[in-house]
Amino acid sequence: MGFTTAFFVTWLVVRYAGTYARFSLDLDLHAVQKNHHSVVPRVGGLAIFCGMAITFATSTFLYTSPTYEAFLLLSCATPVFIAGLAEDLTKRVSPRMRLVCALGAALAGCFVLHAVIDRVDVPAIDFALRILPIGIAFTVLAVAGVTNAMNIIDGLNGLASVVAILIFASIGYVAVTVNDWLVASVAFAMIGTIGGFVVWNYPSGLVFLGDGGAYFIGFVMAELVVLLIARHPNVSAFYAVVALYPAFETLFSIYRRRYVRGRAVDAPDALHLHTLIYKRIARKGIAFSDHPHCTRRNSVSSVYLWLLSLITIVPATFFWSSPYVLTFAALAFVSVYLWIYSAMVRFKTPGWMILPVAVLRQTSRTERPPAAPDRLH
């Protein structure tokens, strides 16, 4: 149901994008963080939100999932989705206002769903988190951070959406293992709903998630992880590394902007890892004006980040109760991320990263039509 609804609503968005171009299209092609080359609707999050709402409404009649709690979760997510969608439509909602909405949504989740982190499996910190106000404050900051993190990595075709599918698949697997049917049903519904959007987003990039979609996905993801940790003592708190890629990208961006470059933490730039991969590997040797090939390379770039995210997603899925394995996975991810980033910033990209793109470049040449004959002859 989620897949079908999201697929149909996304089709409507793409089909009638020109009719409501003033509101739905992303007309700013020259911003420093942009990687696309033509105007595209950025309200794909509307399809995902509608898909989840209709899925939960349908399950009410079919008695197939814990719909009451699911609707509570959807209600908590609504403010942050509306804030993001308002930015997509008006381009006038400030980052601070969107952050306030994320904090408010996370606070609502604490009281409505009792989704409060009371442990991180570190004794000294756990003692403080058992004090309810401290636990609530920590949870609100963590959930709001992951909510914004998904928006940070939403820069390439299929990047944020497919990474989200991989993370929700892990969450769903663990939820089934511990018999948490609320978390499982929401996670699987999110997979289907995002899948209906991905058909239109990858690889052609006909529609984008937008802030509304990224915030909604990030919030639901964070809440499900919190619920797993809060409800099930046998799930290690270190299982949160399942979402380490978007979270670490955000923390590293804050550090890079504030302490390395001396800029505001919310100032956009073109130095995210996914942007470097696109510009210095995938688009290498391709002119910006070559739109079809640039779009293809945009999509190829996402594959690198999908594989990188699996460094933590796979261990978290199968070793969700082992803090030692999860800690090792987190350290491995951070090491690989920093190594790749450092190499690319210094223009010393490893050769194994370039090989797949070189093959694609050769394919692209063979697909080009023959040149027109020189009229002078």
Q: N-to-C terminal Cα separation, in Å?
A: 61 Å
The description of the largest β-sheet is: 2 strands, antiparallel
Strand element count: 2
Order of helices and strands: HHEEHHHHHHHHHHHHH
Average pLDDT number: 84
Question: Helical proportion?
Answer: 55-70%
Shape: globular
- Computed CA radius of gyration, to the nearest angstrom: 21 Å
Cofactor: Mg(2+)
InterPro entries: Glycosyl_transferase_4
Organism: Caballeronia insecticola
Membrane topology: Multi-pass membrane protein
Briefly summarize what is shown.
Its main location: membrane. Mg(2+) binds at residues 151, 211. By secondary structure, the protein is mostly helical.
Give the SSE layout.
Blueprint: H1 2-15, H2 21-24, E1 25-26, E2 40-41, H3 45-62, H4 67-90, H5 95-112, H6 123-129, H7 132-152, H8 159-177, H9 181-201, H10 210-231, H11 244-260, H12 273-282, H13 291-318, H14 323-345, H15 351-367
Helix pairs in contact: 1-3, 1-9, 3-4, 3-9, 3-10, 4-5, 4-10, 5-7, 7-10, 7-11, 8-9, 8-10, 8-13, 9-10, 12-13, 12-14, 13-14
Cofactor: Mg(2+)
Membrane topology: Multi-pass membrane protein
Protein name: Glycosyl transferase family 4
Task: Please characterize this protein's 3D structure.
The chain has helices at residues 2-15, 21-24, 45-62, 67-90, 95-112, 123-129, 132-152, 159-177, 181-201, 210-231, 244-260, 273-282, 291-318, 323-345, 351-367, and strands spanning 25-26, 40-41. The protein has one domain (2-276). With 377 residues, the chain is mainly alpha-helical. The chain is globular. Mg(2+) binds at residues 151, 211. Keywords: Cell membrane, Magnesium, Membrane, Metal-binding, Transferase, Transmembrane, Transmembrane helix.
